Each structure stands twice: as structure tokens, then as C-alpha cells.
Amino acid sequence: MTFSTELIEAGTPVLNHIMAHPFVKGIGDGKLSKQALMFYVIQDYNYLNEFLHSDAVALLKSTSREDMQIISQQIDFLLNSESEAHRNFCEVAGTSYASLQGQPMTPTTKLYTNHMLETLKSGDLIDIIAAMTPCPWTYGEIGDRLVEQGKNTADNVFTPWIELYANDDDADETPEQFPFFDILDREAPKYSRERLDQVKRSFLESCEFEWDFWEQSFYQKDWQFLPGVVLPVNTAAKAK
Ligand SMILES: Cc1ncc(CN)c(N)n1
């Protein structure tokens, strides 16, 4: 069994919980509160900034052009395409993207991004990529499964979001669809079983953080005693 197959098997129960989460179900059904959408975009903007920093260090630590290509494609997707997913949510929430930027990180966003950033300080490429992989993996799976369920209908307001993340082809799910798994499979043979178990734990922690990210957005879980997220008054401003 390849290391990526092992990770996918271990992460699938968490992925199933993500699919059952009311935020993800709401994307499929085209129904989510404006507060949940805005809270998500505010925090996701923060999260993706740190994800980009992780990409930058992963690029620095990669030695093959193949790995560099995969990481740079991820950076390109994030900078040039993924903002469309945020704009889709902003349009439905009736607010502008600019109004949802520059706010403090919630405890969950901080925990998740610190978990990724921790690997940059002392980790190898395998540690950095393992902590990052649940991000593209779970979203690709969400997109694929919602398409399989026929949720990308013309009248679902979140169809642009679903189609952005769904993989284009109809092929069976393979690690190759999520090229970070290829990097993990190339790196894994260099390490002991004990070390790979640590890497697997880190991957699974990120899977759980993915679930928690939906949870915090659906319920707008924020700081209790410190200043936190301020949701803009819904002005129905045109999304920029
Ligand atoms: C928290 C989170 N995880 C994953 C993705 C998909 N890149 C995202 N935008 N935000």
C-alpha cells in the first residue's frame, strides 16, 4: 500500500463527517445564512494567506522540478482562481469581497494555520506537504461528491463554488488527482515507520481542522472575551 493510500484510508472517516456537516450540506442545497458565508470568507482569506506562506517554504525545500511544478500550480490556483469561490459566497451574501478582508483570526483559524506553520520551522518537505494536503484533498472531494449527487444545478446559487473544486474528469478517485499525494509518495520511502506515523498524525490533525473550519463558520465561533470578527452590515453591495 502506498503512503498516500494509507493517508486517504485513515482520513476518509473525517471526510465523511465533513460531507455530513450542515455547512457543506448547505452548499449542496443552495441554502446558507449570510452570516455563515461572510464569516467563512473572512476566515478563509486569513487561512489562505498562511497557506501561501506554507507553499512558499515547501517550494524552497523541494529539490525536483516535478515537485516545484506541483507547488507552483497550487500557488497559481490559490491566487488566480480560488478567489472566485470567495466571490461566489460574497455575491450570495450580498456583500463585497473587499469588506471581508483584514479581520482577526478566530481561535480555530489560528490553531489550524499554526499547525501548518509549525512544520515550516523544523519540518522536512514531507511534514509541510502532509499538513497542507487535507486542504486540496477535502475540497476536491467535496466538489466531486456534490457533483455526483447532482447538486451543481442551474438554480443552485453555489454551483460556481462546487464546479471550481470538482475535478474535471469522471475517472475513479486516485491520488494522482491530488498531486500533493504524489510528493508524499516520493518522500515517504526516505523515512522510518515511526516517523511516517508522526506525518500521518499531522495529516489527520489537518483533516480534523478542516471539519472544524466548517463548524466555526456555520456557528460563527469566535473569541469569547477578546475583540473578534465584525460582520459588515449587509448592504447588498455589488461584489467586487
Ligand atoms: C480552510 C480551507 N481548506 C481548504 C481550502 C481549499 N483550498 C480552503 N479554501 N480553505
From TrEMBL:
Pathway given in the UniProt record: Cofactor biosynthesis; thiamine diphosphate biosynthesis
GO BP annotations listed: thiamine biosynthetic process; thiamine diphosphate biosynthetic process
Residue span, Thiaminase-2/PQQC domain: 16-220
Reaction(s) the record says it catalyses: 4-amino-5-aminomethyl-2-methylpyrimidine + H2O = 4-amino-5-hydroxymethyl-2-methylpyrimidine + NH4(+); thiamine + H2O = 5-(2-hydroxyethyl)-4-methylthiazole + 4-amino-5-hydroxymethyl-2-methylpyrimidine + H(+)
One matching Pfam family: TENA_THI-4
Keywords: Hydrolase, Thiamine biosynthesis
This protein's record includes keyword Hydrolase: yes
Gene Ontology cellular-component terms listed: cytosol
Similarity field: Belongs to the TenA family.
UniProt xrefs under PANTHER family: BIFUNCTIONAL TH2 PROTEIN, SI:CH1073-67J19.1-RELATED
Subunit relationships: Homotetramer.
Name of the protein described by the UniProt record: Aminopyrimidine aminohydrolase
Species this protein is from: Secundilactobacillus pentosiphilus
